[in-house]
């Protein structure tokens, strides 16, 4: 690969990862993602996530909606409850890299 092609590749990677880092750069979103990551996929509802992270329910709900729109999380309905899981594999990898673990 030429030097110019390597530079283009690096710039493309920066574009690809920018949204992920923007999401992780918000403390509320990072707390919610860390809690989801720890508990496992579809273990927590919005109110349980709010309680676990110390975030107000409307704030958690808005953050989760935004992350669902951008593909970071995915939701699953069970009756009247909606449970959340990490959907973006890049986010999952980065949560491991920063040291957040799993409950089980």
Structural notes for this entry:
The chain has 104 residues and is an alpha+beta fold. It has a single domain (3-98), classed as Winged helix-like DNA-binding domain superfamily/Winged helix DNA-binding domain (Arc Repressor Mutant, subunit A, Orthogonal Bundle). Helices cover 63% and strands 13% of the residues. It contains five helices and three strands. It has a three-stranded antiparallel sheet. The longest helix has 22 residues, at 3-24. The model has no long low-confidence stretch (mean pLDDT 93).
* Secondary-structure element order, N to C: HHEHHEEH
Percent range of helical residues: 55-70%
CATH architecture: Orthogonal Bundle
User: How does the overall form come out from the CA principal axes?
Assistant: elongated
CATH topology: Arc Repressor Mutant, subunit A
What is the makeup of the main sheet?
3 strands, antiparallel
Domain unit count: 1
How many helical elements? 5
Q: Please report the first level of CATH classification, the CATH class.
A: Mainly Alpha
CATH superfamily: Winged helix-like DNA-binding domain superfamily/Winged helix DNA-binding domain
Residue stretches low in confidence (pLDDT < 50, at least 5 long) are none
Number of strand elements: 3
Within the largest sheet, what's the order of strands? 1-3-2
Determine Rg (CA atoms, Å).
Answer: 16 Å
Cα distance, first to last residue?
Answer: 43 Å
How much strand? 5-15%
Query: How much is the average pLDDT?
Result: 93
Specify the structural class. alpha+beta
Keywords: DNA-binding, Transcription, Transcription regulation
Organism: Corynebacterium ammoniagenes DSM 20306
Protein name: HTH arsR-type domain-containing protein
Domain HTH arsR-type: 9-104
